[in-house]
Amino acid sequence: MNKFNTEEQVEKSAVCSVVPEQDAYIDYRKLHYKNTIPDNRVLVFLTGFCLGMVFFYLTGGQNASVGSMLDREHLALMQNFEVNRSGLFEYVIGLRLRQLLFGVICALGSIGGLMAYSIMGWCGFEVGLIIFTLVYQYGIKGILLTFSMVLPQGIFYGILFMVIFRKYWMSDKKSCHNEMTVKGEHQHHKMEMIKTIVLVMLMFSIGILCEVYINPEIMRKIALLFP
User: Does residue 20 have a cis bond before it (omega within 30 degrees)?
Assistant: First the structure.
C-alpha cells in the first residue's frame, strides 16, 4: 500500500512539475511573439501615414488646406504675432473638451475598439499628409514645422488617448487572483477608475496649458527659420 502511495505521489509531483514548465514556455512564447510582431496600434498608424503619403502624390503635391495655412505669408506674420492668451485658452479648451467628450463616448460604446483604431489611422493619415506637403514646400525644414505644430501638447494628448481606450489595447490575461472576494474586487475596480479619471484630467490640463502657453512660442521660433 505504501508502495502504491509513493508511486502515486511521484506521478503527481511529475505532473505538477511539468505544468509550470508548460506555463512558463507559453508565457515565453507570448512574450517572444509580442516582441517580434509590431504592435497593432503602430501598424494602423503607419497604414494611415502611408495613405496620407499616397493621397499627397495623387493630388500632385498641392494640398490647399495645409499649404494655405502655413504659406510664407502666414509664417512671416507668426514671427511677430502677439498671442491673446485668454482668447486662445477659451478656444482651445472648448475644442479639446468636445474632443475629449467624443473620445469618452466612443470608448464606452459598443464599437469603441473600431473607433480607437479608426482615430489612430486618421491621425497617421493627417501626419503623413502634413509632413509630405510641408517638406514639398520647404524641404527638410518642413519636418521641423510639422513637429512644432504638435509639440509638446501632442505628447500629453497621445497619453490621454491611450488611457481612454486602454481596455482595447490590453491583451487577455489569466486571472491570478481568483481568491479575491467580490468586495475586494469592487474596491480594486473603484480605485482603478479613480486613478484613470485623475490621470485623464491631469494629461488634459497639462496638454491645454502646453498648447496655449508653450506651443505658440515654439512655432514662433521655428517661423524665424523661414525668411
Answer: no
